[in-house]
Fold:
Amino acid sequence: MILEKFALSGKTAIVTGARTGLGKGMAVGLAEAGADLAIVNRSPMPETEEEIRKLGRRCLPIEADLSNANVIPEIVKRTLDEFGKIDILVNNAGIIRRAPSIEFTEKDWDDVINVNLKAVFFLSQAVAREMIKNNGGKIINIASMLSFQGGILVPSYAASKGGVASLTKTLANEWAKYNINVNAIAPGYMATNNTEPLRKDDERNKSILDRIPEGRWGLPEDLKGAVVYLASEASHYVTGHILCVDGGWLAR
Structure:
């Protein structure tokens, strides 16, 4: 039956940036579908851990700062020590810096690229090595509307998300032969910590809402279906794809 192909019972997933917002929503969605989770964040994640455990799933919280790629081997090791395998990786952790491009600093550039792009590649690489041993897996990157559009006042964020989109396709091409699917979700304008300055700006908030056919900001719950689909057997023949969950933003 087709619904059985969406089940994640017996699977282990890593979700980065899982303390709040989209990461928390996706982690809980994977747990609802039956997966056990290693959740990664640079600060504690008690609420996410509690929700996952209430669903009867195992949860391993790992505090790590992905701005430093040296933490990646430990994340993989601890997950394997706890669960024995890694079936799913969701590269969600990301940061943003806002300033006019003419004034943008090297530090703000490097900080964003290190978390949003460099960590995505090297964590995917480390996890893929384990997935190859296990005859496959699912890697899901978090792209953005700015994977397609330029954005305003966020040059390093836009560059990083454009890079995530291209990297997703590159890894999909290389790793399909190992039965590893690599896809991305591109959320639209979501009500998260990153977008709080936009929502507080009445003019920007209105201009954004006016362009979204559904007429509202997205919520973390809106990504649950997409992440479960891409993490499950139901998407076995889907790779190198960027799935937009945007309330119709790109269609307008």
About this structure: The chain has one domain: 7-190+218-247. The two ends are 36 Å apart (CA to CA).
